[in-house]
Amino acid sequence: MTYYEQEEGPCQCCGRPVDDCICPECEQCGGVGDPKCYEEHGLVLSEQQLQGQRDTARAIEKARAEEMELLDELEREMRDAQGSSS
Questions:
Q1: Cα 36 from chain centroid (whole Å)
Q2: Per-residue DSSP letters for 42-66?
Q3: Which of 35, 52, 78, 85 has its CA 20 to 30 A from that of 28?
């Protein structure tokens, strides 16, 4: 299972697995990896966090594209099988 397919999903701020999150602890509330801390408490995303978000987005898009390709192939096979049985 890849990091973006975890039950919890990747960290919303750094894109890494939740148990490997690189986000700092918020000085105001003690949260880690909470988007609210960046929106309301003044935390700023680091370049590593932004890169992690980009990497996760690419991995998810790649997985979706592969899944769509498999679904298209399955649909073609089903149409071919129906055409052969007619």
A1: 19
A2: -----HHHHHHHHHHHHHHHHHHHH
A3: 52
Sequence ranges of the domains in the chain: 9-85
Give CA separation, 60 vs 2, 33, 34, 53, 57, in Å: 10, 19, 21, 11, 5
DSSP conformational letter for 28? T
- pTM for this entry: 0.73
For CA atoms 20, 54, 23, 35, the dihedral sign is: negative
For residue 20, the SS3 value is helix
CB of 32 closer than 8 Å to CB of 22: no
pLDDT in tens, 2-44: 544 556 789 999 999 999 999 999 999 999 999 999 999 999 9
Residue with the two structure tokens 């932004």: 50
As given in the structure block, the two tokens for residue 5 are 């397919």
Reduce the DSSP state of residue 25 to 3 states and report it. strand
